[in-house]
Amino acid sequence: xxxxxxxxxxxxxxxxxxxxxxxxxxxxxxxxxxxxxxxxxxxxxxxxxxxxxxxxxxxxxxxxxxxxxxxxxxxxxxxxxxxxxxxxxxxxxxxxxxxxxxxxxxxxxxxxxxxxxxxxxxxxxxxxxxxxxxxxxxxxxxxxxxxxxxxxxxxxxxxxxxxxxxxxxxxxxxxxxxxxxxxxxxxxxxxxxxxxxxxxxxxxxxxxxxxxxxxxxxxxxxxx
Length: 224
Prior knowledge:
single chain; alpha/beta; Rossmann fold; seven-stranded mixed sheet; two-stranded antiparallel sheet; 6 helices; 19% strand
């Protein structure tokens, strides 16, 4: 997969022939310096942008020929998102925030499903508090619950600990790993701070738009 922005003198190759596959249930870090292309890669996997060349397969399905409306529906069904900032709506309760993205689905999760996920992330006592009345760590837990409530194939997390103090960040990392282990949930996490995450299933390093398996920038084997 390749992603190019601009033309001629302004041409920038953000991703250069990147190719890999991720197994169900893996907890994978995508690491690299600022501007390396890691967030661009996450946007491609999350169908928030389209590659210039190549394709993205999610759960064995080729997404390259989907229309914009089909992409939105597919993304809402198959993908969960956790960002650096929790992006909760301040005037809604924690429960309402978790349910909000699923409301456009015809078979959207029930209150009971949302409550179950919130219990798993340790927020069963915060369901009816407004989002502006909880701590930063609790807000990020709610964001993780929101990302899990639709039972997505993959949860994509972009710098999920970047806005947290070190103690809270450690707790959020432990929470995500526990969700991966207990639910068999696939996580793909972009981070600039690899040290926060300890042992993970795999690391993919992005450097100058190229992908390398592991932390030592040894060129990875193409598998897809």
